[in-house]
Amino acid sequence: MSSSVYVKFVSKKISKVRLKPDNESSLDGRTSFLVSGSWNDRPNELRLWRCQNSEESQEADDLKSLHGVDVDGSVTDLCFATGDLLAAALSSGTARLYRCSSECLTELQEWKTLHENSKTGHAMPCTGVASYGSDRFATIGEDGKLFQLSHGQAKPVTVVGNASSSCMTCITYVRQNVVAVGTLGGRLRVWDFAAPKKPVQDLGMRGERLTCLSKHPSQPHVLATGCYSGRLCVWDMRRADRPTANLVGPHSPMSEVAFHPSRPGAPLLSCFHDGSLVYFAPVMNAAQVWSHSDGVEARELVPARGRPLNSLDVRGSLVACGSDTEAIYLLSDSPASQHSLM
Q1: Is the Cβ–Cβ distance between 225 and 212 less than 8 Å?
Q2: Which domain holds residue 28?
Q3: How far, in Å, CA of 239 to CA of 217, rounded?
Q4: Over the stretch 76-85, which tens digit does the pLDDT of each residue have?
Q5: 103 burial class (0-12, 13-18, 19+ CB within 10 angstroms)?
Q6: What is the CATH number of the domain that holds 122?
Q7: Whether the predicted pLDDT of 132 surpasses 80
Q8: Where in the cell is it found (predicted)?
């Protein structure tokens, strides 16, 4: 993956970026959209951006801001449920659902202060959100609770009241009603909302703190986890007594990890607190690459810059990243076009 890198300074620390998925057909040649979320500011915001491929221009200073909405607290996670349905998790303990068109963001529903201290009633951060289809969502929080929500219903459908004694940091659906959750205590737990009294799987990594999680695009039993140490692990949950692959990135906390959804072998991208972006790609035998640690090449796409690269997303030939340098990074490896932003 040889990439051109473009940087747009946006005057906000960016905690999350997500590319709008209904534009896959345009990512190799024309227009795409992304949503960014900020943190550690007053106010924080969600912002919709438009960018466009062009052979004539290679400038990133034409990134077009389409619309922004203020939010109460830092944006801790973003998740597109469909091409125009976006879920947001906030440090205020709240989760929100937005309609995301090609022009603006419109709030559809708010689950206010889902996560709170049961003794004091004070809000606690909602640390992650995931979706299954257009009407099922799951959130995790620093209160140790796991919720399943339904679009249109004001109260949670399912409550797991003591999902973890340590902070839950990341969540993804692996199939309907089943989620995987990572914690700073080094646990990777799988919960079935149909039988929520205890996890159906509870795996541990001694001495590690899990910070991020990604599901394989075509094999939902394959999960990648990133660690505070910079370690990257791939798990086959059908035989998950230990990771099937262990990879070493920079010796810096990993912020986010993502499987490439359309590349053979589903290579992985990871961003780190030192500001680097690393691409883990199979050298050969792509179909079996994540069944072992051999045959994987790690390549640095963005060098360390001293301040965290907090988030990444990838679709088609486009990778978007958000940083504490108050910048959005766009990387394109399209051979026919250079990436300009409009």
Answers
A1: yes
A2: 4-340
A3: 19
A4: 999 999 999 9
A5: exposed
A6: 2.130.10.10
A7: yes
A8: Nucleus
